C-alpha cells in the first residue's frame, strides 16, 4: 500500500497515512478539523536486479554516447588540422 501525505490548510500540519488506491482521500485534519489537501511527494521506488533498464541497458547507452562524442571530437580536430595545412600550402605557393 502506498503512503500518502496530506497538509492541513488551516494549521499546516502534515499527515502521512497508508491507504489503498481504492480508499477515499482524507478530508479533515486530526488536530484542528481543518481541510486537508493531498501532497505530491517524491518516490523512493528503485528497481534493482537483472532485467531492468537501469541495470542492463543504461550503461550501454552511456558508453555509446561517450564514444560517439569522442569520435565527433576526433573528426573535428582532424578537420581543423587538414584545413590549417591546406591554408599554409596556399600561402607558401603564392
Structural description of this entry:
By secondary structure, this protein is an alpha+beta fold. It has two domains: 3-39; 53-82. 43% of the residues lie in helices and 16% in strands. The chain contains two helices and three strands; from the N terminus they run E-E-E-H-H. It has a three-stranded antiparallel β-sheet, with no helix packed on it. The radius of gyration is 30 Å and the shape is elongated. The N and C termini lie far apart (81 Å). 3% of the residues are buried.
Largest sheet: 3 strands, antiparallel
| Radius of gyration, CA atoms, in whole angstroms | 30 Å
Mean pLDDT, rounded to whole units? 75
Number of strand elements: 3
Strand content: 15-25%
Query: Which structural class best describes the helix and strand composition?
Result: alpha+beta
Through-space gap between termini: 81 Å
Strand order of the largest sheet: 2-1-3
Low-confidence stretches: none
What's a concise summary of this model?
The protein has 94 residues and is α+β, with helices and mostly antiparallel strands.
Highlighted features:
2 helices, 94 residues, 2 domains, three-stranded antiparallel beta sheet, alpha+beta
Secondary structure elements and pairings:
Blueprint: E1 3-8, E2 14-18, E3 36-39, H1 53-56, H2 58-93
Antiparallel strand pairs: 1-2, 1-3
Amino acid at each position: 500500500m502506498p503512503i500518502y501525505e496530506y497538509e492541513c490548510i488551516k494549521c499546516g500540519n502534515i499527515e502521512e497515512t497508508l491507504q489503498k488506491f481504492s480508499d477515499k482521500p482524507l478530508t479533515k485534519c486530526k488536530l484542528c478539523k481543518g481541510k486537508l489537501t493531498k501532497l505530491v511527494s517524491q518516490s523512493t521506488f528503485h528497481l534493482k536486479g537483472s532485467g531492468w533498464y537501469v541495470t542492463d541497458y543504461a550503461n550501454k547507452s552511456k558508453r555509446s554516447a561517450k564514444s560517439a562524442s569522442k569520435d565527433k571530437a576526433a573528426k573535428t580536430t582532424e578537420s581543423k588540422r587538414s584545413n590549417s595545412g591546406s591554408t599554409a600550402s596556399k600561402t607558401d605557393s603564392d
